[in-house]
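README: folding subset

This subset contains proteins for which both the sequence and a predicted structure token string are available. Records are stored as plain text. Below is the entry for Nucleotidyltransferase domain-containing protein (265 residues), shown exactly as it appears on disk.
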Amino acid sequence: MPSNLPSTHSELLERVCSAVTSDDRLNALLIGGSYIHGGLDEHSDLDFVLVVEERHYADVMATRVDFAQAIGGLISAFTGEHVGEPRLLICLYGPPLVHVDLKFVLASDLDHQIERRAILFARNPDEIEKRVLAGSVLWPNHSSEWFEARAWIWLHYAITKLGRGELYEAIGMLGFFREQVLGPMLYRRAGLHQRGVRRLEALQLDKDEKLAATVAYHDTTSVRDALVASINLYLDLRRDDPPTDPRRGMPKLLFDLLKETEPVS
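--- output ---
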């Protein structure tokens, strides 16, 4: 356990460990995220993976909210279908408030991991450790083609909302574009795993504040300027690893469409 673990997180971690060890349906408890990467502080999440005995998996999945409730202090919980992870239960505990992810997996799921997690508890520690160490680790980084296929469609959507005067919708898409495209590409430029826009400030990945220029407030000119900045930053970051199939007519078609949104003087 990290020596500088905040007391609130430490106490909650102990309660989760106790809940797992006392539930015979569960074989192991692992933890990832900032617990293993460093930088865990009072604002951090706790990212747990619970290894379930296969014959009990359906029962655990059906009663996992009850399990989370039994840990004590649960305020709210919901499942992770919105991030493509139905095995995940996203929880808020408190007070003090702590975000906790509980992902329920089978031992065979450890054969393919996004990070090599720390083992907090295992009924068969040698077996679990062997599986964790032998499993492939592949962070879900996106390719240049993935970005190129989506970037222009998402930017076009934002421009059409600007043209209709739906500024909140356009601002929302700009935020989504930062999270899904620009932030990951800034991480790529730094030679790091793509992590949206998390810790960009702490890692100083936007020293020239080009990403900051993509943030708009509720004003037509501000949104338009942020869209131009988003297009230009994408083009800049795209040069690091150019796609094999750059989309026809871009960015000129989008710049032409942006001109149509300019007020008539």
